[in-house]
Structure formats: structure tokens, C-alpha cells
Here is the input.
Amino acid sequence: MNKPEPGKLLRPQRKLRDGVHVAKVTLAHGGGGKAMRDLIDDVFVSAFDNPVLAPLEDQARISLADLALHGDRLAFTSDSFVVDPLEFPGGDIGKLAICGTVNDLAVGGAKPLYLSCSAIIEEGVEVDLLRKLARSMAEAAAAAGVAIVTGDTKVVGHGSCDKLFINTAGVGVIRAGIDLGAHRAEPGDAILVNGLLGDHGAAILAARGDLRLETRIESDCAPLNGLIDALLDACPEVKFIRDATRGGLATVLNEIAEASGVGVEIDENALPLRAEVAGFCEILGLDPLYLANEGKIVVVAPAAVAEKARAALTAHPLGRESAIIGLVTDGPAGRASMRTKFGGKRVVDMLVGEQLPRIC
Here is the structure.
């Protein structure tokens, strides 16, 4: 007999009830009664429906045996998303929430499996917008091969939050034999990225419309678990992977240098950067090293396999612009630096304060 798929032993998916459909969210939708159940059914359950979610208990129930099939360690993460605007070129807060959580699991070498979705909704938000964002989450989850299996909904008064906040938690399993960590970098190791930097941060700022810029820059928001699987399959010697989100590439470089007690040096000429983003930064006085990304990883690999790792990344659709951008050095310990286009060198500090607010 074939082994049932995860969740198949649970009762069948629940038939959605015909509720009262309203145009906007009211405080009644947060009261725990029929109005709330109707909103959850209409917006979230209809989009996320799957056998593990279907019972709608206060927790998702997952077979430990099914988890163990994927590896020997559990990975668990949580993240919150407060982006403004809710929709932007290349994505929206729903897609961002799924991709961000999937990527946080994948960079640890885990296979992402199950996600939660908790929404804090401001009174007055249009229900059609919520449906659209829930569908976007469902599509992103399907693309990443994960299931949204539990969640929560809260409604707050007008002005108590900015339209919609989403919290997601994720569970995955780390494959046997994989050991990734910022503390593993050693002098001589290569530093790689999987493509063009800064697109997400630039897209969010441009989408706000305050600057009246005509250049349309799209966010790089994407689930990276497939790319990371391909990398680790081809090059299990990889020591470290991190997605360069808030704080950008510069923050990740400093995390590597501090955790391993090494120096990190990158080459400005090697950085893959879209011309539009470079121009955007020049006009606004921003540094692309600190711009947020939602589809980019930083990889540390032994020098002997650096080209092999780059080739594995380049072969994937989300890594076609991959590049080796620098190396780990023997000092000064804890410091990141960059060789500039003009032949000099500058320190790349950790971001202080906010370069761009509300980007994820």
C-alpha cells in the first residue's frame, strides 16, 4: 500500500459555508463570531484550503514520521511583514510574507514544508484587497511547494495599524549532512551572490510615488528553496547561506566577519547591479550595499569549489546573474571592506538607523 501523503489521514477538506459578503472589514470581523468565521472562510480558507488546514483546529497536526523522511533536524522560523505600499511592482505583502519565510528556512539548508499565516487587519480595509493578497500568498506557497496549515486573524480599529500586518511562521527539515553557519567562514573562502542587488528596496521606494521617478524597477521577491537545493546538491561543501534582506549585502558581510572572526573583502567592480538601481542610488544619495533584497542570497564557499558553486547558481533561473564578489581574509577580524572602482578601499560598516523605512 502506498504511504499516504502528509495530512491525508485527517478528515476531508471542509465545505465552505455561504456567508455574508461585505465590502470592507469592520470591527465585528474581529469579534470571534459568525462575521469573523465568514471573513476567514471567504478570504483565507478559500485560498489556502488543504487537508492539514481543513479541520480548523487551534493547531496544525503533522506526522513526525513524515517530517523525518526529509532529514534529521527541524528548522523553525517566524517573521512579520509591514511593507508600505501593500502592492508594488514584482509583488505584494502576501507574496513577500511567503517568500521571506520560505527563504529563512532554506538558507539554513532546510526543506520548507509548512507555514502559518496570522493577519492583523485595520478596520476599513477592502475585502477584495484581502482576497487578492490571500490568493497571492496561495500562489507563492504553491510555487515554493509549501502548505499554509494554520493561522489567526485579528481586526483593530482605524489607525491602529497600517492597513494590514502579516506574521508568518515556518517549519522545515534540514537534510542530513548539511551544516551551514556564519561562524564557518575561513580565510581564502569565496563570497558569492546569486544576482542583481538592491531591486526590492529600490522598487518599494519608487512605488510610494513620492519621488515621481519614471523608471519601473521590480522587486526581486521570489522563493529561493529550489535554487538553494540545486546549489547544495552540486556543492555540499558550501559553508554559509543568508538572504540579504533588511540591511542588504553590507549587513550580511558584517555578520560573517563578526561570527567567524575574519575579514571580508569584496570588489565593487564584481557587484551585479542593475543600471537603473545604480542611477536611482546616485540620484538619491543611497548606497546599494544597504538596499534590501527579497530574492538574493550571499554564499560562502571554499575557494576550491567557488566556480562549481557559481555554475550551479547560474544554471538556475533565479541565479543567472550570479557572481563571485569577494573573499574571506585573515583580517582585520570582524571588518568588512570593499575595493572601489577607483582602486581604493573603504570600510563597509553595519547599517546604522534606517536607510529605507518599511521595506518588508
